[in-house]
Here is the input.
Amino acid sequence: MDISSLIQKNDTKIVFIILDGVGGLPINKKTELEAANKPNIDNLAKVSACGLHIPVAYGITPGSGPGHFGVFGYDPLQYEIGRGVLEALGLGIELERSDVALRCNYATIKDGIIVDRRAGRIPTEKNIELTKKLSEKIKEINGVKIILKSGKEHRFCLVMRFPKTITDKQAMVIDTDPQKEGQPPQEPVPLNEESREVAEIARQFIKMAEELLKNEEKANYILLRGFSVIPHIPSFDKKYGLKACSIAVYPMYRGITRLLGMETLSVEGDIKEEIGLLKKVYQNYDFLFLHIKKVDSFGEDGNFEAKVKKIEEFDGYLPEILSLNPDVLVITGDHSTPSLLKAHSWHPVPVLIKSPYVLGGLVNSFTERECLKGELGIIPAISIMPLVLANSLRLRKFGA
Amino acid sequence: MDISSLIQKNDTKIVFIILDGVGGLPINKKTELEAANKPNIDNLAKVSACGLHIPVAYGITPGSGPGHFGVFGYDPLQYEIGRGVLEALGLGIELERSDVALRCNYATIKDGIIVDRRAGRIPTEKNIELTKKLSEKIKEINGVKIILKSGKEHRFCLVMRFPKTITDKQAMVIDTDPQKEGQPPQEPVPLNEESREVAEIARQFIKMAEELLKNEEKANYILLRGFSVIPHIPSFDKKYGLKACSIAVYPMYRGITRLLGMETLSVEGDIKEEIGLLKKVYQNYDFLFLHIKKVDSFGEDGNFEAKVKKIEEFDGYLPEILSLNPDVLVITGDHSTPSLLKAHSWHPVPVLIKSPYVLGGLVNSFTERECLKGELGIIPAISIMPLVLANSLRLRKFGA
Here is the structure.
């Protein structure tokens, strides 16, 4: 149901913490959360409503976009972020409604055939050098501004900034990346009449880049994919009546939350600096989102011990957050990232909701297995926000 | 799925008990159900299928209409009761298909501006006096019968009884209540061509009432809202093949169950009288619904002890119900009403299904926390009736 019609505003404060990829799997019988010495989180779990959430659907492993959309109450099956847009957000590009974003690879071509889709994973320094050269030589095409930004190794991002608003119907162009080596690149064919302009700029860009890169040994070609524009999504304010901010170190999470209309606050450093900022801006917002990245990063590295340590480090800062005395405090993850898998996974994610209006007393610690005993049960990620709003007394009764 | 196609009739008997608003939250660590000394319910829970139900959706607090619709298997998001209809049902008016019902307030107007939407909450006696006066002077408008009934304080109900059937499309008229003071009342504007007649009667009624009330100090005006007709809902008999009756002291619950096609039996008193009636009519029905109101009333008063006592009082009568030996016995609530919140809430509601075909042995008592361990898990309210029908062996196999 659309809960926007039930929203009532009040002065409560909500702190919503994502420990990115916090869910895990046992190695030597214990998951990362079970192995971590985290007395503060565990004590909080004892008096909170606990459970697990399914980010998208049973068995589905979410990317960062769907993972965050879900916990913020935006159905990831309804709202999708294009590959190009996600890449741009991850590189810190502030996208506008007049932008088409693309994910690009440097690649190796020989006699018209792609022999390496990743140009031998060239060093990032080489990527920076080449992207700088392309940027200086290709500033605009047909009156459309060209913005390039290096990623890691062979990856970079292209944004076409038009002088007018661009819709998703105007950016329906086939990827040039054939996804397989030993084949020629595909043409950037427009899928409808309205996308001809974007396709033509892509075609010219490829041609100009090929000329500029022709003497490179490895990175002598480029492949484009994920033509996309920023999605139309009702803002947090419109959907929930919440003045929201996002505290995140990594650009991608600032970008995702900016799409949801949160004010994205810049912060350098790690947990300590983020919590310092949280305390500083606490009075200015109804809803404060805190994103802790490195739990996921160590999971993706398969570094069980480092993921455990990062959870423990966060635990040490929890009393500072609790001292703000938010009306509702949520701790969860956007998805699981078991060190065992070295990747995001489909497993349900522990979730904890602290409020004055819970049963509590059902779990002994904040872990995958203990949270199964909690009062929330196993819930879809998109049910978390209605529960958060209910617990902050921000939802009116439904029906007479 | 539509289970109507799977219905098979038999001679089983189902007793379905709603302890209105029974779910609660801890005060001094115990919920109302946990604090109550209720050996009979607890012993029954030990051998029953237990769990919790979500009345409408996660985080959604239901009104009485959606709460009852859900547990009876009618999706509250699909079937809605209008404000006017609910008010009429609550006052014991037996609505017909030719009726348009409205919720009305006595109000104070000065120089065309509403200065008090509730006329200073006039005493109910004053309301009765004024409503009698209006009733005597306004018996019909344009051939449409006008039925008025006093509620508490400033509230009353207006029913327009037409000589013909009226559909919801003919009753789409804007509320005259501006919902804020310091503003003029709104005109009863019809939202479509078909609703002109209803709007015109409303306009004339307001004018006549204003003239009759003009010398009143406080209640010198009336505000109308919630223009509505009784919804089209498949009856219990049609949907489930059940001959059903409803035993409820309060008119609203008799009204809601009459909408579902149950025979509504009048009873004065409280639990004792209701159970006396249950025993008396037991042989006449397949499905007997028993509604215990005051559990909710004390919850809404914030009177934890009185709510506990009312649960204990019901417990004392349970052996009488069990002695009837129904094939399936259900005990649940339509929603939670924690004394802590003094209001309906969004929390899952304990549910118990006693039948010969359950696992049992999973819970020690009928409480919010114990029911989490039960075999039903946390289920949507609309899943209760299919389970009840299955346990009474009234559902055929689906598919070959």
Remarks:
- The interface with chain A takes residues 25-26, 29, 31, 56-66, 76-77, 80-83, 86-87, 226, 338, 340-341, 343-348, 368-369, 372, 377-378 of chain B (CB under 8 Å).
- Chain B has a mean pLDDT of 96.
- Residues 304-322 of chain B form the longest helix (19 residues).
- The two ends of chain B are 16 Å apart (CA to CA).
